[in-house]
Amino acid sequence: MLFLNRFFAFGAAQLDGFFVYVPWLFMFFIPAIGMRLWAEEKKTGTIELLMTLPVRDIEIVLGKYIGALALVLVALLLTFPLPWMVSSLADPKTPFDWGPIYCAYLASFLLGALILAVSAWVSSMTENQIIAFILACSLTFALYLIGFPAIVSMLPEWLGNLTSKLSPYQHFSSLYQGVIEAVDVVYFVGAIGLFLYLNTRTIESRRWA
């Protein structure tokens, strides 16, 4: 309903009103997927079986992560009929610009992949799925918050510049507006790698506990 209100208010065939809500939808949807990646294994004791498999910890982490990431990708693909519907409403004399749409989907996928990596790491530290969900949502919100202009403006300039660069919300906003810059892509890839590394270290610590 919120998307439709913004769509008709703009009076143009564009999807800004949809993608602007993606970070907030993902803040709850992605942790719901990631909360059981490791918490369920620890609760049922099957993680001990995983630790005996002749594979490296990083391979187990990546296997579970990629499997969950596939669900995120499917969820995004299920929304793809939406831009087709919107493009059919565009003025025939003005070709529908697909470039920003592809950028927005790339931004959404990268943001979802990052939140999933955060959720997987949090899940590896507890056997309670509800706690994992709440912590992942809270951490995601905190990462968003440090990039909000209202928050950044209250900080010293050097600190505000730093926190805005560390916030996925700022990098998502740049990408979904149709501006692909290497710094934004590198940020997401690096942040995903960091949380997967932390996830692996947490699992390794259990092996030697």
Structure description:
There is one protein chain. With 209 residues, the chain is mainly α. It contains 13 helices and no strands. It has one domain. The chain is globular and about 65 Å long. The N terminus is likely disordered.
Proportion of β residues?
under 5%
What is the first-to-last residue Cα distance? 50 Å
Number of domains: 1
Taking Cα atoms only, what radius of gyration do you get, to the nearest Å?
A: 19 Å
Counting H and I runs of at least 4 residues, what is the number of helices?
13
Secondary-structure class: mainly alpha
| Unreliably modeled segments | 1-13
Q: SSE string, helix = H, strand = E? A: HHHHHHHHHHHHH
Mean pLDDT, rounded to whole units? 86
State the share of residues found in helices, binned by percent.
over 70%
What characteristic shape results from the CA principal axes?
globular
**Major sheet:** none
In total, how many beta strands? 0
Features:
mainly alpha, 0% strand, disordered N terminus, 209 residues
Topology of this structure?
Elements: H1 2-10, H2 16-19, H3 22-34, H4 36-44, H5 46-52, H6 57-77, H7 81-88, H8 99-123, H9 129-145, H10 149-152, H11 157-166, H12 168-176, H13 182-207
Helix pairs in contact: 3-8, 3-9, 6-8, 6-13, 8-9, 8-12, 8-13, 12-13
Task: Provide a short characterization of the protein structure.
This protein is an all-alpha fold and 209 residues long.
